[in-house]
Amino acid sequence: MFLVFEKEVLSMSDDIKELDLYFLPKHKKRMNEEIESYKKKMNINYGLELYEITDETTKYYISAYSEKQARYIATNNFIEVDKVRKIHEDVMMSLNNVDLTVSNLLKGANTSVVGKFNYDNYKLGVD
Q1: What is the pLDDT tens value at each position of the chain, 127 positions in all?
Q2: Which residues are within 8 A (CB) of 12 and not within 5 positions of it... i.e. 6 or more apart?
Q3: Which of 5, 41, 54, 124 qualifies as a cystine partner to 83, CB 3.0-4.6 A?
Q4: What contacts 25, CB < 8 A, 6 or more positions away?
Q5: How many CB atoms lie within 10 A of CB 88?
Q6: Beta bridge partners of 64
């Protein structure tokens, strides 16, 4: 997609061998940088993401590859889904009293319910 639509140096009808030039070791660093920039521009993500699933009393955090998968995991764990939002990878979260960015939290993780926050246990202005 990057070479065809963004850079317009190849077409979809070109032979696959045309890609060999771009996979040469001397181009690896630059191609990785270019593709990462393109993925951000196009909002493309192939890795796990963190989703916040909200019901009446609780926020659940689920690692999944898509919102659809996050909803499926929630339903399979008997979680009622009222709202879903994706948590940005740079957001700081606390897990077991350790502060981490979402991207660090998801390193090595599998698809699962990562944690939850219950509104009933939270009080503002605790003395």
Answers
A1: 889 988 999 999 999 999 999 999 999 999 989 988 888 888 777 789 999 999 888 999 999 998 999 999 999 999 999 999 999 989 998 877 889 899 988 988 899 998 888 876 655 544 4
A2: 4
A3: 54
A4: none
A5: 11
A6: 49
Residues 104, 46 contacting (CB under 8 angstroms): no
* pTM beyond cutoff 0.90: no
Residue 22 and residue 34 in contact, taking contact as beta carbons nearer than 8 Å? no
How far does Cα 3 stand from its chain's mean position? 24
Q: What is the DSSP letter of 88?
A: P
CB proximity list for 118: less than 8 A, separation 6 or greater:
57, 58
Q: Where are the domains of the chain?
A: 2-42, 49-119
Pull the structure tokens for residue 77: 């764990």
Write out the two tokens for 117: 């926050």
Rounded (10°) CA dihedral 50, 67, 48, 112:
70
Distance, CA of 111 to CA of 104 (rounded, Å): 15
